[in-house]
Amino acid sequence: MSETYNKPLPRLSAANQPFLDAAREGRLVVQKCQSCGKARFPAASICSNCLSPDAEWIDTSGKGTVWSFCFFHRQYFKGFEAEIPYNVVLVQLDEGPRLYSNLLGVANEDIRAGMRVRAHFEAVTAEATLVKFMPLNEGEE
Amino acid sequence: MGAHAMRNAAAVVGVGHTSFGRLPGQTPYDLGAWALREALADAGLKHTDIDGLIVSRVPDYQRFGEMLGINPRYTAITPGQGRMSGASIQMAAMAIAAGMANVVALVYGNDGRSVGEKYGGENDRYGGGDGGLWFPYGMTSPGAAHAIMFQRHAELYGTTSEQMAAVSVAFRKHASMTPHAVMRNPITVEDHQNSRFIVEPLHLLDYCLINDGGVALIVTSAERARDMAKKPVYIRGFGQGTELAGSNLPPDDFWHAPMASAAKDCFRMADVTHADMDALMVYDNFTPTVLFSLEGAGFCPIGESGRWVQGGRLELGGEFPTNTSGGHLSESYMQGWALNVEAVRQLRGETGQRQVKDAKLVFYCCAAPLCTSIIYGSDAQ
Asked: What is the ipTM of this complex?
């Protein structure tokens, strides 16, 4: 945590606030339709599978698989200067939803689609915790 | 009404555009009006002949109609997205076939370069507006989404950046023969590979060129088209497909399913085959989009595009000369509009050094959450 953190902070709609609140507590949550059970993220007012408006937030395993990735050489946001080229990974959670994030603990050239990863919570300000990912340890599934 | 009733029901009889580049002080309305003047002159029509008006990226149809001083029977506006160029042209053909209009002006104006349009950063809305969730991780821009898609394609099928370079090289070669193209110096695969990464694996030379400009087309009924100043170019077939579900993130299938649907309907309406195409106009916001489109539209097998585009296949003189004006990568990013103009000019035989000999059929397509395709033909048979 740093007073000088100057990267963009999450701009969440009110609907996504539970995601941020849970991240602060070290939990990765997604919405689950209370009618058909389909998991979704980002938050939506209805389920795209059955159109039910009824949903709850559920804890996920925090585990997933890298779907694909890229490396930013151009700086679009302040705060990233020192990290260019930085990675962005698209992770598919075991529960289904996908989210963009950063993969820590591995060199860019070693990132591959299909890598197994787990959530890693990084408190960047008093209010905001980002959900990043780390490779699963040997033997973990 | 079956597909056959629409085949060659409408024709493009006028095309026009501004110069492309940095055109400060010109609003999208001004750029659209400039392009429209060119298109009307090309067709031998007056603005008072227009009874249908479709605008895109020109912010307001009402204001534009007021500027022109016209009261069209039919009017519509489409969002300023590139996928809407083909969709708008299809709307014009349908409005004409329905009898709602007989002379439709399609007008596009884009001041993106002068106003410093950014496709990445705090104002990025690509992917449906979830960007605020991902900015903290540095994720932004349609270019990055396409980089991620290309990386996925590479992992699944072994496609390489060196293979993809053939697309950029071909389009630049064509731009070198296009007087109004913005980037005309030929490039090599090595130049492509040596150009800096923007969002790796995409290099600078995989990105389209943001510029100012306007484009206009005049579409009318086949019957009326016979009396125009220039040889009509018939809208022989068209189709659409969408992949809106889940479209806040990159698609699993590189838009193959909606592009296949768009192409299938288009070829069926046109009653021609892929091999009949004399040239292709493939929406090239980023180089990988061309690969995905060729696969989805059925020009090459899924996953084979990287190998398929080798050996000059997309170059003039090759099997399917593609984006013969240079496309978005080298002519200018006119969001599909100028590619449709180039299709018309090829079929009229107006393209000089870059002319495809005896061109009779040209296929246009755009891959995005809304996929479109159009086949243009030089005769009404």
From this structure: 0.96
